[in-house]
Design brief:
One of its GO terms (molecular function) is serine-type endopeptidase activity. The protein is built from 28 helices and 20 strands. It is an alpha/beta fold.
Length: 744
């Protein structure tokens, strides 16, 4: 007998022995346990047909039936089609997850906690999803969320599977799985792929088994040994072989089912991409979605598409609550090649508002030199345009509220906590690196050199990313905007180092307009994020005190996503146009899901009149405010206002958090360092050190509420930070410094 046939026979005999050795009392006890959603070979014995079918098949196989095709004998029939997947599935006493039970359980849990009202329609409208489902080419789509979007992704995954099952064979494992799955095994990446392989066997067309039973048994004989070896290659081969019978299929996986072993899934995007390529050669269209509540800390090839999901916008209807006529316009189109177009509001039809230019806001020197009235009138005329691509500085006469008290608290509490205990010669920890994408930094004029000299040893690089400019241009800043932005960071963080990136271009018509050049921004982000051994700077933070009305540049979008995957925190200013701004009141990139959005407030936490809408649908979970009025810089006697400078202060606060984690006692904790690279961790830290004032619930940053409580030892502050991280990433975080109870 062929070795693969013998392997199948031996496996059937083994399973029969297990079933026969199972006493009646054990079967009753097994039935009482009711492992809902989980099936093993012993539970299968509760169905008497399974044992009977195995005996019948064994009787057929031990004869000469497998030679029937060669000897022109009548073909051998599988007496039960389910055996085709059950025999491999229960190799090695393995268990099988009933994915439909898990999906129904997830629905019930959502109903119980009112998650059925969670908003998901905006996810359905994403062009990445449209392309994945209906685009001409099969692909892998990585959907990345965070702690604020976990329930949205959980609900969306159920909706998606329901939708896909109406289009074609769909294989899936969603969160949460039944707890009994974790009681019976410790799920690793290979365990999940095994479950996928079993599901792929279950969806093999019955016509193949019924019309070509002998070939089906040969297929079963070849497949069974792979389920006994339990390796990644075995599961990939089994999935490949089973799906080759399909014209089209979908796989949807939620990485969170791996729990603490979620890193096992980091190789999945490439594994599935290669699988898609192999199946395409056999005319099988496979589309794979991998969902995760955190970013994957691994290299993703160009062929792996990424879609980020943040918190839901406010006060919008649920897609399943819409009438059928309206739902059709929200759900994805059925065509193979959907036409993707931007959603435009009627108010956006004015072509003037779509220009990617902006009028330069009046500089402090203009206002100081007596031109306030003329410039203020000009400002009123271009208020709408100034947000379309502007560096977000506002007229200093329009807002009030000194930040003096805020900075006094920062100095006496936070700075004292972070820096006072260190020797002035202690440079053992790695300084935080911040890339400042702006108009430059003034250091060519004598008065600038003199006034900014105390900061210059912390400027590590000047670089211009504007086409046809030399790096020397980054040392010029006629507007003063970039200089004032950089100074705010240097005042907040006393050890961070800056990389000055000039990304502003002048208007071609000779006016004083400045443009944040999108190609320059793309190049600057890539350079800042790349590791030094690859010619980059390896920064920790990127500050972008500018914005555009529309997310219409693939290069910038992809660069931002790449930076986020590398663990770089990005901050961007929201707007200075209040409710009079462009169609999208929160500018891009501050509304990108990978970026933390910053509004301007006065020194006491009151939002300014130029602040964008508090009920904006963008960035609610990652939107904070910081002092953005009457700020100073030593190179000028002017006062600076706007979200640009608030953004710089927020970036400086982020640097303070990273600095503290790189000092004793946390500097030895790799789990703390790695966790703080996650956006959800930084958002959690900022939320922990912010307060809300008034009904608009703007989160105003007060860093001393976490870093620098009076009389609190560093160890207590460190433990508070670790405790916050553990809420997000589990109890293992910080265990190198603060062991869990029972650990040595």
């Amino acid at each position: 007998m062929d070795p693969s046939h013998q392997c199948l026979v031996d496996e059937i005999k083994r399973q029969i022995r297990i079933l026969e050795s199972d006493t009646r009392e054990n079967r009753r006890a097994q039935q009482k346990k009711k492992y809902l959603g989980i099936i093993d070979a012993k539970q299968q014995n509760s169905d008497q047909r399974y044992r009977t079918d195995l005996l019948t098949l064994l009787s057929n196989l031990t004869g000469d039936c497998l030679q029937s095709k060669a000897e022109n004998k009548p073909p051998l029939h599988l007496n039960n089609l389910s055996l085709f997947w059950q025999i491999p599935a229960f190799c090695g006493d393995a268990i099988v997850v009933d994915q439909n039970y898990a999906k129904d359980r997830s629905k019930a849990l959502q109903d119980h906690r009112a998650a059925k009202h969670t908003y998901t329609a905006d996810i359905w409208g994403r062009r990445e999803l449209t392309q994945w489902i209906s685009g001409p080419e099969p692909s892998v789509l990585l959907v990345q969320g965070n702690s604020q979007s976990a329930e949205r992704l959980e609900k969306f995954s159920v909706e998606l599977v329901d939708y896909l099952e109406g289009k074609g064979p769909t294989v899936f494992l969603l969160s949460p799985l039944p707890e009994t799955f974790y009681e019976n095994s410790i799920p690793r990446g290979d365990d999940i792929l095994r479950q996928i392989a079993v599901q792929c066997l279950r969806i093999i067309p019955s016509s193949f088994i019924e019309k070509t039973p002998t070939e089906a048994l040969w297929f079963l004989s070849r497949t069974t040994p792979y389920f006994q070896t339990a390796s990644l290659d075995s599961w990939v081969f089994s999935i490949d072989a089973a799906l080759s019978f399909q014209e089209q299929a979908y796989i949807v996986l939620d990485i969170s089912i791996l729990r603490q072993h979620y890193r096992d899934a980091f190789a999945w995007p490439d594994v599935f991409f290669n699988l898609i390529h192999d199946l395409l050669n056999r005319r099988t269209d496979l589309r794979v979605m991998i969902m995760t509540g955190r970013s994957i800390d691994a290299y993703l090839g160009e062929n792996i598409h990424v879609m980020s999901v943040d918190m839901a916008p406010r006060s919008l209807p649920n897609v399943y609550d819409l009438p059928e006529s309206e739902k059709a316009s929200v759900l994805l189109p059925q065509s193979k090649k959907p036409q993707v177009s931007a959603s435009l509001q009627p108010s956006m039809n004015n072509t003037e508002t779509t220009k990617e230019t902006f009028a330069q806001n009046p500089t402090p020197s203009d206002l100081r030199n007596g031109n306030r009235n003329d410039e203020y009138q000009k400002l009123l005329k271009v208020t709408h345009r100034s947000g379309l691509g502007s560096f977000q500085a506002a007229d200093s006469g329009m807002t009030e509220g000194s930040p003096i008290s805020w900075f006094k608290n920062l100095t006496s509490k936070t700075h004292a906590a972070i820096y006072a205990s260190r020797s002035a010669k202690d440079n053992s920890f790695k300084p935080v690196k911040i890339a400042v994408l702006d108009t430059g930094f003034a250091y060519t004029e004598e008065h600038d050199k003199k006034s900014l000299k105390p900061y210059m040893h912390r400027i590590k690089k000047f670089a211009s990313f504007v086409e046809d400019e030399t790096d020397l241009e980054a040392m010029k800043d006629p507007s003063g905007h970039g200089t004032a932005v950089a100074v705010q960071m240097l005042k907040v963080s006393l050890s961070a180092v800056l990389y000055i990136c000039r990304v502003a271009t002048s208007s071609k018509d000779g006016s004083r307009e400045l443009f944040p050049d999108k190609e320059a921004v793309e190049r600057a982000i890539k350079k800042a994020v790349a590791e030094p051994e690859k010619g980059g700077w390896g920064v920790d933070i990127i500050n972008m005190s500018f914005g555009w009305a529309f997310d219409d540049h693939d290069g910038v979008r992809n660069a931002i996503r790449f930076a986020r995957r590398q663990g770089v925190h990005m901050f961007a200013s929201t707007s200075n146009d209040g409710l009079l701004g462009p169609p999208n009141d929160i500018l891009y990139p501050s509304r990108a899901p990978e970026v933390i959005a910053i509004d301007a407030a006065d020194g006491f936490g009151e939002y300014t009149r130029t602040t964008a809408s508090s009920v904006s649908s963008y960035g609610r979970g990652r939107r904070f405010s910081a002092p953005g009025t009457r700020l100073t810089s030593p190179h000028s006697a002017a006062l600076y206002d706007g979200s640009s400078f608030a953004c710089a202060i927020a970036a400086g606060i982020c640097a303070l958090i990273l600095e503290f984690a790189r000092q004793p006692p946390l500097q030895v904790s790799k789990t703390v360092q790695n966790s703080l690279k996650e956006m959800s961790a930084m958002v959690a830290m900022l939320e922990r050190m912010s307060a809300e004032k008034g009904p608009d619930r703007f989160k105003f940053l007060l860093p001393w509420t976490l870093l620098g409580k009076p009389g609190q030892p560093r160890e207590f502050t460190a433990y508070s930070l670790v405790d916050e991280l553990r809420n997000e990433f589990g109890l293992a975080v910080g265990s190198e410094v603060f062991p869990l109870e029972g650990e040595s």
